[in-house]
Amino acid sequence: MIVQRRAVTAVLAAAVLLVTSGCSSGDGEEPGAGGTSAANSKGPGASSDESAPEDAAPAKGSVKVVRTVAEGLKSPWGLAPLPEGGLLVSSRDEGTITLVDEKTGKKTELGEVPGVSPGGEGGLLGLAISPDYASDHMIYAYFTSESDNRIVRMLYAPEKPSGEQLGAPDTVVRGIPKGMNHNGGRLAFGPDRMLYATTGERYEGPLAQDKKSLGGKILRMTPDGEPAPGNPFGDSLVYSYGHRNVQGVAWDDKQRLWASEFGQNTWDELNQIKPGGNYGWPDVEGKEGKSGFVDPVAQWGVAEASPSGIALAEGSVWMAGLRGQRLWRIPLKGTELSADPQAFLTDEYGRLRTVVSAGGDRLWLTTSETDGRGSPGKGDDKILELEVQ
C-alpha cells in the first residue's frame, strides 16, 4: 500500500436487538430477511474520566421535523456546515460540491472535484472543514478515483463565480483500497484537531485485519496527512481496525469517538472506538465476547439499519439508516446504553444518509433516494432540520 502526502502553505491552507439473518452489504441493499431490533495524546477515545458520574439520557425521546431546508439534491453524501453559515453538500455521482443556504434553501454549485470516478458506492463522499478554516479556507473531501480512494483538500474562494469556487485539489492521502462497494468515506476533524477518515474493505475481509492496509480502518492523521501524534501503531495512519464498512463517526461531550458500521448477514453495529482496537471483521460480526475483539455497544438486524452517518445530541447517538429507512436514537450513559434504542421517521422519508449536529437540540439530516437504490419522490433528495429530545 502506498501512501503519499503533500503539505501546502498556510495561505492555501459520529440494547441489543435480536433478528433473523439478512444482508447489509455495503449500503445494505441486497435483499434478505430482517427482524426486530432489540482527549489526550492518543486522541479522543483513548481514555476518559470514568470516576465522575455521568447522567443517563432519558429512556424515551422524541424527534420533530421542523422544516425542509432544501430539495432537489442529487445523490447527496457528505454534509459540512460552514462557520459563517451555509451547508456544503457533496454529490456522490456528479462529483460536485454545492453550498446550500440553510435559511432560504438556495443552492449554489461551488464546482466539480477533478478526478472523481463514480461507480457503485464510490464517488465524491465525505466532506470536512479545516480546523483553521478562518485563515486557510480549506475544504477536505474523500473520493473514489479510477485507481483508489483518496483524501484531498481544496481552497474555497467564495468571491469567484459560481462553479469556479474550488481550487485545485491537493492530495493529502492516496492508496486507500477502492471497490464497487465498501469504500467507507466519512471525514471529520476531531476535538484534537486531527482528521479522521473511515475506510471500507472493498469486499476483501482480510484487509480489515491487515494493519499494513488502509482498508477496513478508521484513520487518524494531521491536516497534512501525516500519522497523528500518539497513533497506536507508530508511523501509521491506522487508529482502529477490523472494520467492514464504517460510514459514521462523531464525538460525545467527553471526547469519546463513536462509529456506525455495516454488518453483513446478521448485525449492524454502533461502536465506541478505542485507539488500537480490533473490531472483529471478518472474524466477528456483532457481540460475540471473543478475546482480542471489541464488542459493539449496540447492534441491529441488517434490515432495520444499514447505518451511515451519526451525530451526538441531547445525550444520545442519532444514527441514519439507509435500508432501514429510519433514524435511530441510542441513549447513552457513559459508554453503555441507558435504555433500548428508539426508531423514528420509519419509512417517512425513505433512505437516510447523513446526520450532522446543528447545535443544541437540532440536527441536519439528508435523505438518499437518488443514489440508485431508492425510490425518488417529489423533491428528493432533501435536507431536513430536526428538533430532538
UniProtKB/TrEMBL annotation:
Signal sequence interval, chain numbering: 1-25
InterPro entries found in the cross-reference section: 6-blade_b-propeller_TolB-like, Glc/Sorbosone_DH, Quinoprot_gluc/sorb_DH_b-prop
Domain Glucose/Sorbosone dehydrogenase: 73-373
Protein name, per record: PQQ-dependent sugar dehydrogenase
One Pfam family here: GSDH
Keyword Signal carried by entry: yes
Basic and acidic residues bias locations: 378-389
Lineage, uppermost ranks: Bacteria, Bacillati, Actinomycetota, Actinomycetes, Kitasatosporales
The keyword Chloroplast belongs to this UniProt entry's keyword annotation: no
Sequence segments annotated as region (Disordered): 24-62, 365-389
Residue spans of biased composition, Low complexity class: 46-59
Keywords on record: Signal
Alphabetical list of Gene3D superfamilies matching this protein: TolB, C-terminal domain (2.120.10.30)
